[in-house]
Amino acid sequence: MIDLSRKKMIIFDLDGTLIDSERLYKEGWKKGFQALGYKESEEFFEAMSGNSVEQNNKIVLQCVGDADLVQKIRQVREDYFNQIADHGGVALMPGVLESLDSLHQRGIILALATLSSKKRADRIFAQRDIRHYFSYMEYQDTIHQQKPDPEVYLKVIDRSGFKKEEVLIVEDSQNGYQAAMNAKVDTLLVSDHVIRDQGKEHVQVMSFPDFETAAREVFTRA
Predict the structure, then answer these.
(1) Greater confidence, 43 or 128?
(2) Are residue 176 and residue 161 in the same domain, yes or no?
(3) What is the DSSP string of 162-182?
(4) Which residue of 14, 66, 120, 126 lies most exposed, with the fewest beta carbons within 10 A?
(5) How far apart are the two ends of the chain, measured CA to CA in Å?
(6) pLDDT of residue 198
(7) What interhelical angle do 22-35 and 67-86 show, nearest 10?
């Protein structure tokens, strides 16, 4: 068990960790494929979770064989997501608000490390009124390498001045988990998917099936 009392900063992923967006992305991809006459399995769409734009573009390109079609499919996905987001339909995961409030009150510094754009993250944070909880934020726009490269996490840690052993990362995807392992930082997983363990001999890892359980067992626990 990771001792939270020894942690001075917690870095959260965004999509699938703090917000219920991966489900919407998957539905958007489905609509994009259907709009152009393609159909793929549930496993195919699940495999796109937590990937960078470039990674998913390559996956789609392998299926449709045309870069223009890739962009058309992605645009359908983006339009679907934005329509929902514009109406405030991107919800926080259960337990997130209580966790952020509890951790903030206990003096733990909170940070964000996401592959989403700053524009998208800022809009959702404004809608849900949680921006004030976060001291450091890094986005797809502010880094050069995508997860599983650890750059986004290392950049937050470098800016904060904390030592790695004073930091905890919270993730939900294989790419994010591997990025945390590559950063050699203790990690809390909130995922009901099978995560392949690589590199955890250097760090501690806790795993919960969802954020709500982690909130109850770790983040809001006195």
Answers:
(1) 128
(2) yes
(3) --GGGEEEEE-SHHHHHHHHH
(4) 126
(5) 15
(6) 62
(7) 130
β-strand partners of 112 = 12, 137
CB atoms inside a 10 Å sphere around CB 68: 8
Phi, psi angle pair for 130, to nearest 5°: -125, 5
Task: Say whether both 140 and 179 belong to one domain.
Answer: yes
Question: Of 41, 69, 86, which residue constitutes the final position of a domain?
Answer: 86
By percentage, how much of the chain surpasses pLDDT 70? Answer: 96
For the chain, the domain total comes to 2
Q: Give the range of the structural domain holding residue 51, as residue numbers without chain letter.
A: 22-86
- Residues 110, 183, single domain; the answer is yes
Q: Rounded to 5 degrees, what angle do the CA atoms 192, 193, 194 make?
A: 125
The yes-or-no verdict on residue 66 having pLDDT over 70 is: yes
Residue 188's DSSP bridge partners are 170, 206
Note the pLDDT tens digit of each residue in 120-145.
Answer: 999 999 999 999 999 999 999 999 99
